[in-house]
Design goal:
This protein has 10 helices and 5 strands, in the order ααααβαβαβαββααα. The protein has a 5-stranded antiparallel sheet with strand order 2-3-1-4-5.
Length: 248
Amino acid sequence: IDSPIFAALPLTKSSTPALQFFRFRGKINIQRPKAPHYERARVIAVTQPKYPEPPKAKTCFQTRAERTQQQLENPYNEIVAKEVRNWLDHSKMVAIFHLNSITADEIFRVRVQLHKQNLHLKSYGRKIIGQAVEGTRYEAILPLFHSNHCIVFSPDQQKVSTLLKITRKVPQMVLLGGIVEETLLSRNELMTYAQMPGLQAAQAQLVQTLNQAAGNLVQQLQAHQNNFVRVLDVHAKGETQVAAQEPA
């Protein structure tokens, strides 16, 4: 309406208000927010979803035997158990160590030193070891695997002294026992076995003993004949001297 009367009125004039925003009470604590108002807290509590709880009879109240029966056997464990059995069957010397706290670098250095001497350092779980030796002649070694352990395999039974020399520098490896030529030996028996001479030296000593026994037997059998010949020789020399002294 273009009327001079309305144009002159002050109420028809409009003005834009100035707005300025301020943050309330400074910084907001995200980790520990302020508790909401009672009304808002009540609304939040009412609107929270409620999920049905799982029946406790299927989880908490099952016996340990029932839970273990439901566990499926891992086929990879069977493969590793066959590998352990193969190592036991084709190794003439097996040493079992208790392994204390040791770093990965130290165990790697020991593994390299043993590998240079044709000694193989392995480590398996007790369940796999039990699966490998169950029902075999190696079942007696199972009590040695109750704690952290490692095993050293070698195709040469003469490497016992070399093994003890290398592991003597590693106090974290404690010798428990071993198998040498299908015979279970304790720690002291292994140390005694390491001080014994080698196979060639033992064979040489055996041959020397047998030759000495044979020589003594021949000497004893010929002793009477040699004495009789000596007596006859002395008697013949005495008669010759008497004949020479008689006048012609």
